[in-house]
Amino acid sequence: MTTLYGMGSIIYSMSVSLDGFVETPSRSLDWVQVDEELHSAFNEEERALSAVIYGRRMYELMTDYWPTAEDDPAATPAMIEFARIWREKPKVVLSSSLQEVAWNSRLVREDAADEVARLKAQPGFDMSVGGPTTAAGLMRLGLIDQVRLYLHAVILGAGTPFFPALDALLPLELLETRTFASGVVHLRYEVVHPT
């Protein structure tokens, strides 16, 4: 991955509808169809990271299931593998409302942007950001280096957008495309930062 001056990268990656939404207006994700092939790709992406950045809502969503996913009789082999990767992965939770975090997580209550920039300054320290709200804040600060969209063949019509409203053009360079057997299309872009 190419980054400025050998710094780490921040990656924003989510499943998204063809019309650009990551969840319905009622915050449902029941339209996302993840089979073993796609979940295995998620696992490889997660495994390659140094850490994951969450806001409160995404952290609570993840901790509601993944710590005990191996106990779920419906969990597939790829899901069980993801649960193991997720538990071991360092997590940075940006929240002023949470009082404590667990599962190899560290809570950052103040100066979140400064802390993220500090982590990113470490050579090779690649992180993903989970959730559109947290990603929007980092994108507006120019801290996102890659966007990865897993496009699902569905039109939601409304919901939470993948990309936030921005004050300026955000140029992207296409790095990779991949089509999964399910019809999901992965698009990986690098953000073209001004030099």
Average pLDDT rating: 94
> Helical amount among residues, as a percent range?
25-40%
The SS-based structural class is alpha/beta
Count of helix runs: 5
Quaternary organisation of the protein chains = single chain
Shape: globular
Structure report:
With 195 residues, the chain is of the alpha/beta class. It contains five helices and ten strands, in the order E-E-H-E-H-H-E-E-H-E-H-E-E-E-E. It has an eight-stranded mixed β-sheet. Helix 1 packs parallel to helix 3. The two termini are 17 Å apart.
Please describe the structure with a list of short key phrases separated by commas or semicolons.
two-stranded antiparallel sheet, globular, 27% strand
